[in-house]
Amino acid sequence: MKLENKIVLVTGASSGIGLDLVKALLKENMDVVAISRRIEEIDLNHKRLTKKNFDLSKQSQIDAMFQFVFAQYNRLDLFIANAGFSYYEYASGSDWKHIEDIFRVNTLSVLYSATQLKAHMKDAPFNFVATASAASFLSMPGHALYSATKAALRGFMDGYRLELPKHQKLQTVFPVATKTNFFNKANQSNKPWPVQTSEHVAKIMIKGIKKDKKNIYPSKLFKYGFKLTPWFFALYMKRQTRLFHRTKNKKIEA
Ligand SMILES: NC(=O)c1ccc[n+]([C@@H]2O[C@H](COP(=O)([O-])OP(=O)(O)OC[C@H]3O[C@@H](n4cnc5c(N)ncnc54)[C@H](OP(=O)(O)O)[C@@H]3O)[C@@H](O)[C@H]2O)c1
Q1: Cα of 132 from ligand 1 centre, angstroms
Q2: For the chain, which terminus, N or C, has the lower number of CB atoms within 10 Å?
Q3: How far, in Å, is the centroid of ligand 1 from the Cα of 231?
Q4: pLDDT tens digits, residue range 33-89?
Q5: Which domains, from first to last, does the chain contain?
């Protein structure tokens, strides 16, 4: 899609990949609506930037977000559903609420937003982009719930795409570990490998959006290596599993 002078909404815009997307999209001469729970506190100002706090774990807040955008612009050309988080933990201790909390933000809010965008835009063209994760293919120890939220998201995007006309495009992004606050917030002290910068991920996302790519892979190593060198990923998962048990068992003993 052509980006110039279009309206874009980015969720999870207050830090990491979302914040770098906002900065890069402003450079593309777009009107940017940036959303998160605390975006209004972020010191980033631009005449084409609108910052608005919404908590995407709640349906009423997502409805209010759509009302706000359509009252302001009466259209939304590009929606980037990027907000998300993880817990680094044994899934065995999770109660219903804990599981529900992560599915609400990472999965339900994205599925609902995709269907709401269609309801508001009717037959007009749009692109809807969802930040999934490499973990949607490769379920990570310590991130089992997270990986499940992203695998469900991938399934939805693949099926819903086939229901829409060609001018309403769904695009899914599969970042590998990225240097953001994500791991601190998840309570993961061991450093993941390999890591990319959020600037790089934002740049590859924008390149993929412009080319209307269905699937966007910020890491070539993952894109090609996952299919061509399964032995490498088997070794990688062994390492990640060892690291997870070592880190979390130490915490329990301490
Ligand atoms: N970092 C990685 O290694 C990695 C790898 C693959 C995929 N991803 C995915 O990339 C996306 C961006 O993550 P990131 O790495 O940039 O992490 P991040 O820096 O922690 O950013 C997460 C963003 O989500 C927002 N958010 C969280 N809960 C929210 C809620 N209930 N309502 C509204 N906004 C909410 C946060 O803002 P507030 O706190 O202001 O609400 C923040 O802006 C996520 O979907 C993540 O799963 C990340």
Answers
A1: 11
A2: C
A3: 30
A4: 999 999 999 999 999 999 999 999 999 999 999 999 999 999 999 999 999 999 999
A5: 7-253 (3.40.50.720)
